[in-house]
């Protein structure tokens, strides 16, 4: 198998060099561009396995780049990790809603960056997801076919919506999802799911999971994730 290819998009040369050095050392092939208007053609030319995309770019900003990539059938399958500044919470939410897969805040630890890259690439290459097969994470076993959750071997009684939220978050540990993404993924029959009601569902879910409710983490200004 050849090296996995990552397209890095950033207008700061020192950031490009740091990311390239870090990812090359981990065995990835890195290509890069420094302005937003170059990304689309480069992505089609290289067909990378993942794109690291800075949001603050000259000519065309990162959100517009993300939107363009996700609207085109040739590039919409390519995972995107956004590189953001701490003050860009609103842009993070918008980017995730446009289809980006994750984000890393500047300044970042190279180890954190590599971990996020690996997690997103694992998700991409994990193959089909058998929706009926049970799976476990930490001390929790989730059986979609039986609509059953066991915590330390003990059954937990969840509503239809709570179950689907737990399943959705736990299948992608470490990934941050906005309330809008959770609403889009979870079609509740026993409860009208809205962005505001997601918070209510999360509170109830944490309570029912008891001491394991802390695995569902709030990411301030963005949404929720299931702890890795």
Key traits:
single chain, 228 residues, alpha/beta, Rossmann fold, Arc Repressor Mutant, subunit A, 2 domains, 5-stranded parallel β-sheet, 8 helices, 39% helix, 21% strand, elongated
Account of the protein in words:
The chain is α/β, with parallel strands linked by helices and 228 residues long. It has 2 domains: 5-125, Response regulator (Rossmann fold); 135-226, Orthogonal Bundle (Arc Repressor Mutant, subunit A). Helix content is 39%, strand content 21%. It has helices at residues 13-25, 39-46, 62-71, 89-98, 110-125, 160-170, 179-185, 195-209, and strands spanning 5-9, 29-33, 50-54, 80-84, 102-105, 135-137, 140-143, 148-151, 154-156, 177-178, 216-219, 223-226. The chain has a 5-stranded parallel sheet, sandwiched between helices. Strands 6-7-8-9 form a 4-stranded antiparallel sheet, with helices on one face. Strand 8 (148-151) and strand 9 form a beta hairpin. Helix 3 runs parallel beside helix 4, helix 6 packs across helix 8 and helix 7 packs across helix 8. The longest helix is centred in the middle third of the chain and has 16 residues, at 110-125. The protein is elongated and about 50 Å long.
């Amino acid at each position: 198998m050849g090296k996995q290819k990552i397209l890095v998009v950033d207008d700061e040369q020192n950031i490009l060099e740091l990311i390239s050095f870090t990812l090359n050392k981990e065995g990835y092939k890195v290509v890069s561009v420094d302005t937003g208007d170059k990304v689309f053609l480069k992505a089609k030319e290289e067909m990378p396995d993942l794109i690291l995309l800075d949001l603050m770019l000259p000519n065309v900003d990162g959100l517009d780049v993300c939107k363009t990539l996700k609207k085109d059938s040739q590039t919409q399958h390519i995972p995107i990790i956004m590189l953001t500044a701490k003050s860009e919470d609103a842009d993070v939410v918008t980017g995730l809603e446009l289809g980006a897969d994750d984000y890393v805040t500047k300044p970042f630890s190279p180890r954190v960056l590599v971990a996020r890259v690996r997690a997103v690439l694992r998700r991409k290459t994990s193959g089909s997801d058998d929706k009926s097969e049970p799976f476990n994470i930490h001390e929790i076993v989730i059986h979609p076919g039986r609509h059953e959750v066991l915590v330390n071997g003990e059954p937990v009684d969840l509503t239809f919506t709570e179950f689907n939220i737990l399943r959705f978050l736990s299948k992608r540990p470490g990934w941050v999802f906005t309330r809008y993404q959770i609403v889009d993924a979870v079609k509740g029959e026993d409860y009208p799911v809205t962005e505001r009601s997601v918070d209510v569902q999360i509170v109830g879910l944490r309570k029912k999971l008891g001491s394991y409710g802390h695995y569902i983490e709030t990411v301030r200004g963005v949404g929720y994730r299931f702890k890795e």
